[in-house]
Each structure stands twice: as C-alpha cells, then as structure tokens.
Amino acid sequence: MSPVTRGFQHLRRAPAAEAGRVPPGQHVVGDFPVLSAGPTPHTPLEDWTFSVTQDGQTTESWTWAEFQALPTETITADIHCVTRWSKLGTQWRGVPVDVLLEAAGYDVPYVLAFCDGGYTTNLPVEDVTGGKAWVAFDYDGGPLPPEHGGPARLLVPHLYFWKSAKWVRGLELRDHDAPGFWETYGYHMYGDPWKEERYAGD
Hints:
The chain is 8% helix and 35% strand. The protein is mainly beta. A hairpin with a 4-residue loop joins strand 6 (73-80) and strand 7 (85-96).
C-alpha cells in the first residue's frame, strides 16, 4: 500500500541555530504532515486496551482508564520522517515505555509494536527503555488526533518516525528481531535518522 500524504506546506531549510537538530537530508516543516499506510482506525475508548505479550500470552494489559492512571511524562522532542521532513519542538504527554515493561516484566532484546489496522514495527528493547520512548496520548496540549495516531501512538523520537507506530495497542516481547510492516517492504530494520538509515542497505 502506498502512504497517503498531505500537509507538506512550509518546507524550509533549518536556520543555523537549528542546524544541529536536523539530520542529513531533512527539511523542517511548520505543519504536521499526515502519512498512513491505510485508513485511519477509530477504536472507541471503552474498547481500547494496551497489552504486553510474549509467546502468544498476555503478560499485562490496561484499559483506557487504567492507562490514564499510570505515571506520565511531558516530552518536547524533534521528530524526523523518512520522507525527509522534520518538525522541531513537538510537545507530547504519555506513559514511559519503561513503566509498561517493568510492570509486565521482561528479559528479551526486542519488541514488536502492534497496532489497530494491522501495522507493526520492530525495535530493540534498549531503544524503548531508559527514558527513550513513550506511549503518547496528548499532542500540543490536547488529545492526540486520530490522523496522527490517536488515541495513542508510540513515540520514539530518536529514530525515524515510522518507528513511532500510530494507533498502538501493545508490545510483543521477542527474543529475536523480525521485520514489521514497512521493514518487510525494504525499510531499514533500525532507522537512525542521523545515519540516514532509510532503506535496507543504507
């Protein structure tokens, strides 16, 4: 499926004061482009859950109300899309992935994020722990809109933004790495924007 793309207004090169925040090959945008691999899911909050699973079993799960009661953090982060736009100083609120994995218990090197709509993406555990990743449900002071992944999305700002999976519903603990949705179509297994790891072989 091809991504649906809109909102690429106000494309600009970073001024000198921002240059150190923008990876190679990226351009700064003033808006927030929307890219999706399919239609936008709309899961009612009363049906929403977030789960941590392993070997086909659920090790921990939260309803929306329970999830909202977990410890949260406010995050200001620059985000970088593989399609070469960057948005600086975005503001989010969400639950640290550390909180979720510590509650579930884990001793594995990888996770696979799974989402409404069937999307998945793979990540090393060390890239979603240690204060590096969140499950975000607020953006810019309000509820995260569905087109940007609401009610909740993974936020891993140090990697290309396809790793910040929209409409996330859980993390599968894995003892080995395996490609997610875009990785099976040739995207890089890791996705470091500073190394321009866009596609397999980069």
